[in-house]
């Protein structure tokens, strides 16, 4: 054996009772699980007092460039994350042509930085996944990564940034782009339906694209049209269109925010339960925090975003148009702000693109004119925390049987949301040990086995003989998020070992130089697996 882990409390990812056992690893896979494994391995690890679980799956990640930029990627590796799902919220870097890519880079600079430090030399989904596999001099990436075809990028590529229906020819082009991305290995399709240009798609257009996703055995992952006013209607729209398309549905960062929805999570869960009882294939993810995080520009009404980033800046410079934007935000409730009139006291600047504007980070936006000046000065790059969530909704949703964990972690900015560095240990420390909202076994299933099943991974997500040795060992008595709103990049405690393919990426609580991550691609039969790799 390459490694024998002795005396671990095995929390196997199924949700079943934990048990004490030895676990042996050989050639990157779990070779044996027994009460006592005779003999030893090239390495023996005494796991007394530690829980052994499958590696955690971040179902909603924004590490699209971070994995190429930073070989360490300790933000996720230190949490026990061994797989991230990228291409979220309908906007990422493939498929695209040169013109589309320029606009997309500007539109999501707040999520991923401008990308000037990364050679974005791919234009297809397959090219991006190949680039992940060959990153850092061919050594690979810090953790495994799957990818969703971003519907907003597809629409920008085929239609542009205008608010209008797609022509039949444009819709056919979008179908082909989605099909190509899935054929090249994407696990599904994402949307950002409060972000342009994805939000300009009708339900009928989305249904047609979801038919393509269903044909390839993928799933649809929408950031739907509202998490505020008419949030339930927005959830119902997603259920209805995927039911019509025959497509699996995974609801991104599913929550009920703003004052309108305080205490209303049971209504959402009842809606889901009715659909599940009818045979719909639905899962969801959430992060265990109340504030949200997005870009400041995302709050603007859709008409102000039409035409792409340069058109937005031109409107903001025009006083009359800027006054229309203010009225939409503060009086009407802009669709970019989920139909709710903005309460500026809830908006905290978490990051800027221009270092000269760093003094704004950590401050609350004190009104529209301040927001307008910052958007113009930083060319739409500022990111924000939006303090609009409700703890009782967060707890109710994480208990649901189809729930999975997703950080929605934006790694950019001087003061990012602490969820980027803390989501998974926060579940285990705060909501398992301290509050008892979930049992340890339930929580680990939410973070490993259940997301692996959604991704149709045939050999990940459980501690079973023959499964890949993507494993995390943590101390249930001390595991905790180190990240806070004041120190958002502090690493977690109580997670001394993380393995990917049987190789230590965290050992004795320290990040090693191992780059064991690769792309995880959907196969022609719908299951997902990695590219073959040299060992």
Question: What key phrases describe this protein's structure?
Answer:
nine-stranded mixed β-sheet, Amidohydro_3, eight-stranded parallel β-sheet, D-aminoacylase, TIM Barrel, Metal_Hydrolase, 18 helices, 535 residues, hydrolase activity, acting on carbon-nitrogen (but not peptide) bonds, in cyclic amides, alpha/beta, globular, single chain, 2 domains, Metallo-dep_Hydrolases_sf
Task: Explain this structure.
It is a single chain. The chain has 535 residues and is of the alpha/beta class. The chain folds into two domains: 54-290 and 389-511, TIM Barrel, CATH 3.20.20.140; 294-387, no CATH class. It has 18 helices and 22 strands. The protein has helices at 66-69, 74-77, 98-107, 109-112, 125-133, 135-138, 151-158, 168-183, 203-215, 231-245, 265-277, 302-305, 309-317, 319-332, 368-377, 391-398, 419-434, 440-454, and strands spanning 3-10, 19-26, 29-34, 43-46, 51-54, 56-58, 81-86, 144-150, 188-192, 219-223, 248-251, 282-286, 292-295, 347-351, 383-386, 403-405, 471-474, 497-500, 503-507, 510-511, 520-522, 528-530. The strands form four sheets. Strands 1, 2, 3, 4, 5, 17, 18, 19 and 20 form a nine-stranded mixed beta sheet that branches. Strands 6-7-8-9-10-11-12-16 form an eight-stranded parallel beta sheet. Helix 7 (151-158) packs across helix 8 (168-183) and helix 10 (231-245) packs parallel to helix 11 (265-277). The longest helix has 16 residues, at 168-183. The protein starts with a strand and ends in a 5-residue tail after the last strand. One of its GO terms (cellular component) is cytosol.
């Amino acid at each position: 054996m390459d490694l024998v882990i002795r005396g671990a409390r095995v929390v196997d990812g199924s949700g079943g009772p934990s048990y004490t056992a030895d676990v042996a690893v050989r050639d990157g896979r779990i070779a044996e699980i027994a009460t006592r494994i005779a003999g030893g391995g090239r390495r023996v690890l005494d796991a007394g007092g530690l829980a052994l679980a499958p590696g955690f799956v971040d179902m909603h990640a924004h590490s699209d460039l971070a994995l190429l930029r930073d070989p360490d990627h300790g933000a996720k590796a230190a949490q026990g994350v061994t797989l991230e799902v990228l291409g979220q919220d309908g906007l990422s870097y493939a498929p695209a042509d040169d013109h589309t890519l320029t606009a997309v880079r500007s539109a999501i600079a707040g999520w991923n930085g401008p990308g000037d430090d990364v050679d974005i030399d791919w234009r297809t989904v397959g090219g991006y996944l190949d680039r992940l596999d060959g990153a850092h001099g061919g050594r690979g990436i810090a953790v495994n990564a799957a990818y969703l075809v971003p519907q907003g990028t597809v629409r920008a590529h085929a239609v542009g940034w205008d608010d209008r229906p797609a022509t039949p020819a444009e819709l056919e082009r979008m179908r082909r782009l989605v099909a190509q991305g899935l054929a090249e290995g994407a696990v599904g399709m994402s949307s950002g339906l409060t972000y342009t240009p994805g939000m300009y798609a009708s339900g009928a257009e989305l249904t047609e694209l979801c038919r393509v996703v269903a044909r390839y055995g993928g799933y649809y992952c929408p950031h739907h049209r509202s998490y505020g006013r008419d949030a339930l209607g927005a959830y119902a729209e997603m259920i209805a269109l995927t039911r019509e398309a025959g497509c699996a549905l995974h609801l991104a960062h599913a929550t009920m925010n703003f004052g309108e929805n305080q205490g209303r999570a049971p209504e959402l869960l009842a809606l889901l339960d009715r659909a599940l009882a009818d045979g719909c294939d639905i899962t969801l993810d959430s992060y265990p925090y109340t504030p949200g995080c997005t870009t400041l520009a995302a709050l603007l009404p859709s008409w102000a975003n039409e035409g792409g980033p340069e058109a937005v800046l031109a409107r903001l410079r025009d006083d009359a148009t800027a006054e229309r934007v203010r009225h939409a935000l503060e009086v009407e409730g802009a669709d970019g702000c989920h139909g709710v009139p903005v309460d500026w006291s809830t908006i905290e600047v978490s990051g800027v693109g221009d270092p000269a504007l760093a003094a704004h980070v950590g401050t609350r936006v004190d009104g529209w004119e301040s927001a307008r000046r910052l958007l113009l000065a930083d060319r739409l790059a500022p990111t924000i925390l939006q303090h609009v969530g409700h703890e009782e909704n967060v707890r109710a949703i994480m208990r649901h049987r189809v729930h999975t964990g997703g950080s929605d972690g934006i790694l950019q900015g001087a003061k990012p949301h602490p969820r980027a560095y803390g989501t998974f240990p926060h579940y285990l420390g705060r909501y398992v040990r301290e509050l008892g909202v979930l049992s340890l076994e339930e929580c680990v299933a939410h973070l490993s086995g259940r997301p692996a099943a959604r991704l149709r991974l045939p050999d990940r997500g459980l501690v079973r003989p023959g499964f890949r040795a993507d494993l995390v060992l943590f101390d249930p008595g001390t595991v905790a998020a180190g990240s806070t709103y004041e120190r958002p990049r502090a690493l977690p405690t109580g997670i001394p070992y993380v393995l990917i393919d049987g190789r230590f990426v965290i050992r004795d609580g320290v990040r090693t130089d191992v780059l064991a991550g690769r792309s995880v691609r959907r196969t022609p039969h719908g299951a997902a697996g990695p590219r073959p790799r040299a060992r």
